[in-house]
Design brief:
The protein contains five helices and four strands; from the N terminus they run H-H-H-E-E-H-E-E-H. With 245 residues, the chain is mostly helical. The longest helix has 84 residues. It is rod-shaped. The structure holds zinc ion.
């Protein structure tokens, strides 16, 4: 590869490298987007499990609370029987006071059960909503999974093709320029730029007369300031010049 073909080849290499970089970026973005969807689904699932535990705990608490209220109510009834058959005024007073206490405790226990029932209802509604959310997010994971796989595979295929084409092209470039290109590529996005108005179009450093005559013979030179590879394309230089004004 020589002269004009060489710098055109290097420019094509820049295009391949940009495409390869873009595809890597797109693949990472796709993977992240899909992971976010899966994470959201896992989050809903966790919430559902938490609600399930809460629901079961409330059921247990209601059963215990009802048992407590029932035994207090029985105690209250037994005390009432005692009171009904009380003999002395003193005994009546003592039993009435005990009965009042039991009645208060019974009311507290029954109120607590009511509060638990209310929480149980709320939890039940939340569980139903969460089940729907989980179903929707699972459907979304499946649907997006198909899209993701298609889009991902397509880019992987493109990437493989670009890498293969780049490899073929790279092998045809003389090692001296291939190495210079690879070195520059690590530090700048545009390792090869045209000469405009006898200057490097990237850093505007003037091209020496000797280098210019080489450029006019379609050869490549390195910019003596920024080390980018320079080429001269009279037509492109005229167009770029026009675009600047
Ligand atoms: Zn330069």
């Amino acid at each position: 590869m020589m002269g004009k073909v060489l710098w055109q080849g290097l420019k094509r290499l820049v295009e391949y490298d940009k495409d390869i970089m873009r595809l890597h970026g797109e693949l990472a973005l796709l993977a992240k987007k899909y992971q976010d969807i899966k994470d959201r689904c896992a989050c809903v699932q966790n919430k559902r499990e938490t609600l399930d535990r809460e629901y079961k705990d409330l059921e247990k608490a209601i059963a215990a609370g009802e048992l407590d209220a029932r035994s207090l109510r029985s105690a209250q009834q037994a005390k009432q029987v005692q009171l009904d058959s009380a003999q002395s005024q003193r005994e009546v007073q003592a039993l009435e006071s005990e009965l009042a206490l039991l009645s208060e405790r019974c009311k507290i226990a029954e109120d607590a059960v009511l509060v638990l029932y209310h929480k149980h209802d709320e939890c039940s509604k939340q569980r139903m909503q969460c089940d729907k959310d989980f179903e929707n997010s699972q459907t979304k994971v499946l649907e997006e999974g198909d899209v993701f796989k298609r889009e991902y595979d397509r880019r992987v295929r493109d990437l493989e093709q670009f890498e293969l084409d780049r490899q073929t092209l790279f092998a045809r470039i003389p090692p001296e320029w291939a190495q210079k290109y690879e070195r520059m590529r690590k530090s700048v996005e545009d390792p090869i730029v045209p000469v405009i108005n006898n200057c490097c179009s990237s850093c505007y450093y003037g091209v020496l007369h000797h280098d210019l005559s080489q450029l006019k013979r379609h050869m490549i030179v390195s910019c003596r300031n920024c080390y980018r590879l320079l080429y001269l394309d009279e037509q492109e230089a005229i167009e770029l010049q026009k675009a600047c004004f």
